[in-house]
Structures are given as structure tokens and as C-alpha cells.
Design brief:
The protein has about 550 residues and is α/β, with parallel strands linked by helices. Helices cover about 35% and strands about 5% of the residues. The chain starts with a helix and ends in a 54-residue tail after the last helix.
């Protein structure tokens, strides 16, 4: 390399090499086939879906040269030793070890699957970070689900203060992660950073095994596992042939082949988040047997963990219904000697967490909507033992603490990673009960196009709480139950929160700025300011 190139640090060059290599390998494959397989996000250009790597190479000053490998893909020399050098700011920090998983790769099975005990060992190695977690739960996974525009870094760090011991990233679109620098930056600038954000599993969506592989290779040294999304029921997932629809693509052959391809090639466990296959029309019942058959094929192919959302893709919003824990137990019993299984669905407090673990025998529980509204869900709060009173900090403090974390890890424009649209959605969920009464506050949250505006909206809630002498111990879930009351017979909030008195509060005017733009994927619109038609609005109760 010339003298000008030598001015770049080896750390920066080597760190960028992972991404350059991934893009380069992706190009080799794309030149052979111009089938735009994730059409919901990208389309072929005149070069045949080939990503221009020139700009990346000029920026990093790395010479990418072809070399042969034992795999059926090619890797550049620059990427060959990347794991022995410091990554750039777009990956993980130097102070974080490459992996926090105590399992040795030499213990892996022939198909690439990790030993049955890998999750338990991972959790125990981090148990010192959760001194309030009961002894009998220290080897159980208490998980924040992968949620579009929701499980961002500041939010994950907030939940980890309250016994969450495993987090997933938001669902990451594999092809966009490789192709779009802006999209990638929103997800990966801080992931794996700081070290408190571990253990962490990165979830990707897509149906092209090589595209998924290239995306996962970028992150594998800085997470504790990677996950394939087979749960999203949204129409955009149907169009892109991922999520819950991937379970049905080619009779399940596609996702099985993806796992078979990824498991032996990646350094971390490959897991899959799934639903129950819906009725085929011949019967009103979900296809339980077909689902079990698919799960067996996935485990045989090398999956190291399954998360079972005990509903079909048709069960969402007002048609959600209770998660089928009995079926989840059947899955747990089937694979109890082979892999850990997580249960997802029908969790709103620790009483339900413990009941789910007892009834299903699962290795942990994954929670989505309820913990979005109240991050301390995995604490003994709003449970029978406390007479359903809230014993942890109230919703206002959740909003304030979240905004402080957002200032520490500033949002990019857009809603996919931790953008202002994501922040607005979090404030809407945290403060849902207040926004129902005080529409002026709701309007202020909707117009929070800057951190100053978001701060002012939360300050308005503080003024209201002070005026009405609000009692946080009486708080109950509000946003979470907006649909659950429709489908769960006899459901009621224990020790219901009094309807707050409506009081006048002055709104501080802030400079209005143009809204941030989404960079693909799910987003927001004037008629849907909090993104509820996308995001987590998929029945993950």
C-alpha cells in the first residue's frame, strides 16, 4: 500500500475488513444470479444487484484480493485475520471480549450445533450482573424479544437493570444490512457496546442463505448467538418471504437448508424464533404435527435453540388469543436432551413467568409487549405477593431513564435502530395511561422531533403527576392490555389504577424540525405516529 494508505491505523483497516469481505463475497454471488430475493426492500440495478464496494474500499484503504478457501465462497486476505485485530466503530469496542459464551467450539456437534448446556452456561457466566435474581432463576433466560423499532440499545440497557439477562437485537434485514451503510449504522454502531449489553443475540430476517451468512459474519465476533426470524406475521414479511412465511416456503425446506448452511460455518449458536403453522383450510386447528416435524428438521440441521411463540401468524391484534403453553411443553419435552427451548407469549408479570416455566419446562421466557410498557417486568412488582402494587419505579421514571440512555447513545435519523421515531414509540408505551387522559401530552409526544421536544413532553407528565399527587404504586399496565381485554375472558387488572384527573398543563414550545426519514423496512406515517401497524404489533403478548 502507498504512503498515504499507511497513514490509516491497522485497527481501523482490519476492523472494516469484515464488512468489506462480506460485501465482496456477496458481490461474487450476486454477479452469478440477479434474483432479488428480498424484493420488499431492494431492487436490481443495471449492474445486476451488484453492490458497489469501491466507495467502501476507498474509505478504508484496504486492497481486497481474491483468494481460495475451503468453503464454497471466497474470502479476502484482509478479512482472514480480522478477528485478531481491533474492530472499527461500526462493530464492537476493543474493551469487549470477542465472545462471552463459555462453550468451546471443540464441543460442537457434527452439524454445527452447540452442546445442550450452552445457554445455561452463558447465563451463569453473567449471573453476577443480576444480584436481585432469585437463585432458582439464575440459569433461566429472562429475555427481551427482537422487536422492530423497539429493542434498541438504550431500551435494552434499561431492561438489564431489572433482571433481564438476555436480549435480542431488533430484527435486522440481512440484505439491507449488507447493502445500505445507513441502515447498517443504525443497528451496528453500538451493538456489542458497552459490555453491559451482553449476553446479546442478533436476529436477522431473509430467505437467502448466503446473504444471511454474509450479514451474520459481520457480527458473529461481537454477539453470543444469531437468530433467524420465522415469527413476523406482517404483510411486509410475506412480500419479502421471511418471518412466519419462511416456515411455509417450499414446505419448510428453505429454512431448514438455511440452518444447515449457517450452523457449521458460524462461530456462535444459530437459533430460530418460530410460530405454530396455521390451518391448511381442511381443519380449523393449527398444524401441530407439521410444526413438530419442521422443528425436528431444524434441530437435525444444526439449530442450537428454538423459541416457540405458541400462536399462529393469524393470531394477532384483536384475534391474538392466549399462547398455547401446552404445545410449547410438547416441544420442550421433544428436545429436552438436545437443545434449549424458550417460550414466548402470554406473559405480563413475574407470576406468569414462573407459571410458564413450571407448566412448559422451558429454559426461559421471551417477553415482548408487556416489557415494552414496563421494563422492570422481571422483578417482583405488580404480582400477587405485592397485592398487585407496583414496587419498582413508576412509568415516568422509566421514560426519564430511557431518555438519559438515549443521550448517552445518541439516536441516528430514522426509526430502525434507535432513531427519534423509535424514541417516540417508547414514550407512547411507557406513558400510555397518561396519554389517554391528557391529549396535549400525547400531541407533544407525537411532535417530538428532537431530544429537547421529547424531554419537554416527559416534563409535562411530571408536572401532571405532581399536580394530581400521582401514586406510582397504583400503576398498572395500560398499553399492553388494549387488546388482551378483548380476547381473554375474565381478564382484569388487579388493584386497578384510578383514572387520573385531567389538569391543565402548559406545553413549552420548541423549534419544529423536519421529521427523520426511515431507511427501509417498517416505519411510521401521519396516521400511525407510533408505528403500531409495524413494529411489535404482531401478537407477541
Amino acid at each position: 500500500m502507498g504512503s498515504s494508505k499507511n497513514s490509516f491505523s491497522l485497527a481501523a483497516a482490519a476492523g472494516a475488513a469484515t464488512l468489506v469481505a462480506a460485501v465482496w463475497m456477496y458481490n461474487q454471488r450476486s454477479k452469478k444470479s440477479c434474483k432479488s430475493q428480498d424484493e420488499s426492500a431492494t431492487s436490481c440495478n443495471s449492474l445486476g444487484c451488484v453492490i458497489e464496494t469501491k466507495a467502501v474500499e476507498e474509505h478504508t484503504e484496504i486492497d481486497v484480493k481474491e483468494s481460495s478457501s475451503n468453503d464454497d465462497t471466497k474470502v479476502s486476505p484482509a478479512a482472514a485475520d480480522v478477528n485478531n485485530t481491533a474492530p472499527t466503530s461500526d462493530s464492537a469496542p476493543t474493551e469487549e471480549s470477542p465472545s462471552t459464551n463459555p462453550q468451546s467450539s471443540s464441543q460442537r456437534r457434527e452439524n454445527g450445533a452447540f452442546p445442550r448446556d450452552w445457554l445455561r452456561q452463558l447465563l451463569l457466566s453473567h449471573a453476577h450482573n443480576h444480584p436481585n435474581l432469585p437463585q432458582n432463576l439464575q440459569d433461566k433466560a429472562l429475555v427481551v424479544a427482537p422487536m422492530v423499532d423497539a429493542s434498541d440499545l438504550p431500551y435494552r440497557l434499561l431492561t438489564r437493570r431489572y433482571n433481564t439477562n438476555l436480549c435480542f437485537t431488533p430484527m435486522i434485514h440481512a440484505r439491507m444490512f449488507i447493502e445500505k451503510e445507513g441502515y447498517r449504522r443504525k443497528f451496528w454502531r453500538f451493538h456489542g457496546m458497552p459490555k453491559e449489553d451482553r449476553p446479546l443475540i442478533a436476529q436477522f430476517c431473509g430467505h437467502d442463505k448466503e446473504v444471511l451468512y454474509q450479514a451474520m459474519k459481520v457480527v458473529e465476533d461481537h454477539v453470543d448467538g444469531v437468530d433467524i426470524n420465522c415469527g413476523c406475521p406482517q404483510n411486509i414479511a410475506k412480500k419479502g418471504q421471511y418471518g412466519a412465511y419462511l416456515m411455509e416456503k417450499d414446505g419448510g425446506d428453505c429454512v431448514v437448508e438455511i440452518v444447515r448452511y449457517l450452523a457449521p460455518r458460524l462461530k456462535v449458536p444459530v437459533s430460530v424464533k418460530l410460530r405454530i403453522l396455521p390451518s391448511d383450510g381442511e381443519s380449523a386447528e393449527p398444524r401441530f404435527e407439521d410444526s413438530m416435524d419442521l422443528y425436528r428438521r431444524l434441530v437435525d440441521a444444526g439449530a442450537s435453540m428454538l423459541t416457540i411463540h405458541g400462536r399462529t401468524r393469524e393470531q394477532r391484534q384483536r384475534k391474538t388469543g392466549a399462547a398455547d403453553w401446552e404445545f410449547t411443553k410438547r416441544v420442550v419435552d421433544e428436545f429436552k436432551d438436545r437443545i434449549p427451548v424458550l417460550s414466548n407469549g402470554s406473559i405480563s408479570n413475574m407470576d406468569e413467568v414462573e407459571r410458564c416455566l413450571e407448566e412448559t419446562g422451558a429454559d426461559g421466557v421471551m417477553v415482548s409487549e408487556a416489557i415494552l410498557e414496563y421494563p422492570p417486568l422481571f422483578m417482583q412488582t405488580n404480582v400477587e405477593a405485592t397485592n398487585y402494587k407496583r414496587t419498582c419505579p413508576g412509568r415516568l421514571q422509566m421514560a426519564e431513564d430511557y431518555l438519559e440512555l438515549c443521550k448517552e447513545y445518541p439516536p441516528d435519523a430514522g426509526g430502525q435502530g434507535s432513531g427519534l421515531k423509535c424514541i417516540r414509540a417508547h414514550l407512547h408505551r411507557f406513558l400510555h395511561a397518561d396519554l389517554q387522559t391528557h391529549t396535549i401530552v400525547r400531541d407533544a409526544v407525537v411532535r417530538s422531533f428532537s431530544m429537547e421536544a421529547a424531554d419537554n413532553a416527559v416534563k409535562m407528565v411530571r408536572d401532571i403527576h405532581k399536580e394530581i399527587n400521582h401514586d406510582p404504586t397504583r400503576e398498572q399496565l395500560s398499553w399492553y392490555v388494549r387488546h388482551r381485554m378483548d380476547w381473554e375472558e375474565g381478564f382484569e387488572n388487579k388493584n386497578p389504577e384510578p383514572v387520573p384527573e385531567k389538569v391543565f398543563v402548559e406545553e413549552k414550545k420548541v423549534e419544529e424540525v423536519e421529521d427523520d426519514e426511515d431507511d427501509g423496512g417498517c416505519g411510521f406515517s401521519p396516521s400511525d405516529p407510533f408505528g403500531e401497524s409495524c413494529g411489535v404489533e404482531d401478537g407477541d403478548y
